[in-house]
Amino acid sequence: MPPKIEEPRSVIYVDGIHLGRKAVVLIASDERHVLGWHLCRAENSRGWSALMQRIAAPEVVVSDGGDGFPKALRKTWPRATWPRAHHQRCIFHAFSQVKRYTTSKPRTQAGAELYGLAKALLGITTLKEAQGWAEAFLAWPERWDDFLSERTKTEEGRYVLAHERLVKARRSLARLINAGTLFTYLDPRLEHLAPLPATNNRIEGGTNAQLRAMLRDHRGLSIERRLKAIFWWCCMHSPSPLHAAEILRAMPTDGSIRAKYERLNQQDKLQETIPQWGDAIVWSELHRSEPYRMDWD
User: Fold this and answer.
1) Is 223 within 8 Å of 23 (Cβ atoms)?
2) Which of 109, 127, 198, 224 is spaced 20 to 30 Å from 234 by Cα?
3) In whole angstroms, what is the distance from residue 219 CA to residue 209 CA?
4) Domain residue spans in the chain?
5) DSSP string covering 60-126, please?
6) What is the phi-psi region of residue 257: left when phi exceeds 0, alpha when psi lies from -120 to 50, beta otherwise?
7) pTM surpassing 0.85?
8) How many other C-beta atoms are found inside a 10 Å radius of the C-beta of residue 9?
9) pLDDT digits (tens, 9 = 90+) for 231-241
10) Sheet order of strands, 34-40 included
């Protein structure tokens, strides 16, 4: 159903809408239109690749850090192509991830400082400010090295990090710095596109907010009809929407959607019953060349 986008966009926003335990619709959009959508059971590299393969590589893609997206980006929109698909990680989601670990009212001084550093991301507008922030962030673990290395003993007798949540929060930001996706919107090589977005608010507050409002207004729909409602909305907001009759001909039926999920569930059940390495029946245990077993004492 999604159109094939052959004209490259400068900036593309990607995000996913979760409708259930095994239903998520991945969506890509520009400033005005929905460019593509893909139904999968979870955010992973295969799902993201399927979405991106029908869209020409943009110069910048903004994401919230969904599972598997970096791998799909390297595979589908690699830097070797032109235009190069530079990745901007939404800084609001980067801040929110730290907030989940530290809370908005940290109980320790180290946590308060890290929370303040993460919150400061939202106000960075120049490359000089970004460099200053990076230096402050790198100095934080050095200052609190002994504190972060403290360990505590569990009831099982194992020793674990006493401040594991702070360590995880630090790692979440360190990964983005090492990947070079935190300050792409300030990259001098992309000045011709300035101002570039630092967040994916365009798709969160535009496309996805309207989709969620539509689903709230029509609460009570089955999962199949919620999916069809999203498909229809995306079709009507694509760059060249089809005529209603054409959309109806291409729209999957409730039965076809249900059949896909039943087939996938059967495959999962089959995989769970396949013996894993070391669990399979050994041929020699049931077949022998001698008339009597020779392995008994």
Assistant:
1) yes
2) 198
3) 15
4) 11-90+199-255, 92-179
5) EEEE---TTHHHHHHHHS-TTSSS--EEEE-HHHHHHHHHHHH-SS-SSHHHHHHHHHHHHGGG--S
6) alpha
7) no
8) 23
9) 999 999 999 88
10) 34-40, 23-29, 11-20, 60-63, 86-89
The strand pairing partners of 17, in sequence order, are: 25
Measured from the Cβ of residue 227, the count of other Cβ atoms closer than 10 Å reads 20
- Predicted confidence (pLDDT) per residue in 101-133, tens digit: 999 999 999 999 999 999 999 999 999 999 999
- Element of type H or E holding 284: helix 283-286
Q: Cis bond leading into 188, ω under 30°?
A: no
First to last CA, the chain: 68
Residues 6 or more apart whose CB falls under 8 angstroms from that of 186 comprise: 124, 126, 127, 130, 196
Neighbours of 175 (CB within 10 A): 15
- 3-class state of residue 167 by DSSP: helix
Rounded Cα–Cα distance for residues 12 and 165 (Å): 33
Top CATH class, 11-90+199-255: alpha beta
Three-class SS state of 157: coil
